[in-house]
Write a structure and sequence with these properties.
mainly alpha; two-stranded antiparallel sheet; 2 strands; Cytochrome Bc1 Complex, Chain D, domain 2; 2% strand
């Protein structure tokens, strides 16, 4: 599989550790179900990036699942987070959104779905730590603009449309600045689920 996935690692870095420019995210160690869903999303038009679509279009679903399982099984160390010039107030706002949400606007905390450690939750929820700020900004912006979609009901689209540009900058900056915990693997299950999370149904994360 290492040889057969060279087309993947050409952009996503050696062993899927992430590309050098901040826009090709780490795929090593992500939950297999999440990676599989994204491969399907690119192939089937819910995510838009022509090189990915062209690469995946001729591949059958069984092979996409095999690719996802291969990268998910890789347990590789993360580099230290990049240093950004961000004001303490912005970082504080980002931490609040990520760990507590904003009840007044029905914005749930990132931790409610992505795990208390923000390293993801098996089988289909990705981790948010170890990703560059520019990539996080771009993905949240894509959800807001409708350029990125998921299976209906699309919970991320619903959540991000409640966020302001300042919210996006704050949460992306805080997440990108966080050091990785000792155990970077996705959690096996969410330890607690709030009533707010219960109200959000995600088609990609049953």
């Amino acid at each position: 599989m290492a040889q057969r996935t060279l087309a993947c690692t050409a952009c996503h870095g050696d062993q899927g550790r992430a590309g050098p420019d901040g826009y090709y995210p780490r795929i090593a160690g992500k939950p297999a179900g999440y990676l599989y869903n994204q491969l399907l999303n690119f192939r089937d038009g819910r995510r838009h990036y022509n090189p990915m679509t062209g690469l995946l279009d001729p591949l059958n679903t069984a092979y996409l699942k095999e690719i996802a399982q291969y990268f998910s099984a890789l347990d590789l160390p993360y580099p230290a987070p990049l240093t950004y010039t961000t004001s303490p107030a912005v970082l504080q706002r980002g931490e609040t959104l990520a760990t507590q949400g904003d009840i007044s606007r029905s914005i749930p905390a990132c931790t409610q779905c992505h795990g208390e450690a923000l390293t993801g939750v098996e089988p289909v929820v990705p981790g948010l730590l170890g990703l560059p700020r520019d990539y996080l900004n771009a993905q949240l912006g894509s959800w807001i603009a409708g350029q990125r979609r998921a299976h209906s009901p699309d919970c991320m689209a619903r959540v991000t449309k409640k966020m302001t540009a300042e919210d996006v900058t704050a949460v992306s900056s805080w997440l990108a600045s966080r050091p990785l915990p000792g155990n970077t693997r996705p959690a096996r299950a969410r330890s607690t689920v709030s009533t707010e999370t219960n109200a959000i149904q995600c088609g990609s994360a049953p």
